[in-house]
Structure of DHH family phosphoesterase:
Amino acid sequence: MTLHEIANKILQMNKIGITFHVSPDGDAAGSVLSLCQALRKIGKEAYMISKDAISYNLSFLPFSNMLNGECVKPKDGTDCVIILDCGNKERISAELDNFKGTVINIDHHMSNDLYGDFNYVDVNAAATAEIIYELINILNAPMDSDIARCLYTSLVTDTGSFRHSNATTTTHIIASELLKFNISHSDIHSNIFDNKPYEKLKLTGYVLSNTELMFDGKLAVMEISKDILNKLNMILDDSSDIISQGLQIRGVEGSVLFREVDGGVKVSLRSKKYLNVNKVASVFGGGGHVRASGITMKDISLEEAKKLVLNQIKEEI
Ligand code: 5GP
Ligand code: MN
């Protein structure tokens, strides 16, 4: 299905719920917030569905206070639910079991399961927000600074401030178009990155001090136990800034972070040039992109998870 066809489907709907993946990152939040505002501007009864509240470093986004974890399923009379930036059904941040309306899936994950009634997946888009920018144009919804701020945030977070290999000329062109709406890229950057609790820096220091190198220095291995989080008395929402620091080491190709969570282990994987981390993650039911993926491993200890995943990386690196 083309994006124009998706747009036409959306135009046929009136009451529209919009959601994303659980534990929303900047791309997920920015995409949902911008599409919701745009649909309201063209007269749709649009609202957002989220099981989680938004993290502190994204709470500067316009209307983000409406992402408070209170609306977890479609409201009565909803014609359609649009799911953004979410690769698989299990990770959708909405209860859809009893939903009889249309499900539209718009995403950029290589591992997308095509779980929607209508699906649009562009793996070349650096962020889902690139697709949403196009969609907003096709829908003829007027752009404004609030929408631009949300979309720009998505681009910044999913490209690591335009430094990852996924950023293309399209990404930069869209960014420059958004900047015309009088938004401050510097303020956005500060809100996202220079806004950490003191404990987060302490944690980062601890994790970096304990980082190990494996496979001839090609892999940086990090871990975060519940124990250290308890010691620092903190709840960790996002660790993508920590894992990416592993890639700063000379000679490293990949970085992996094992994090002890309730009921198992969350694994994050990143790579620089050739290691296909999506392939590694998919072996364990995870997924994502070629250079950034994740796995949720249930009922497993940190040590067991490390053994299994490191063995798999050894095959690929
Ligand atoms: P992160 O490591 O920052 O949590 O996620 C990196 C990428 O992998 C993101 O694109 C995210 O959507 C995807 N991802 C993270 N965790 C999982 C998971 O448990 N399952 C799947 N399929 N994808 C994941
Ligand atoms: Mn994304």
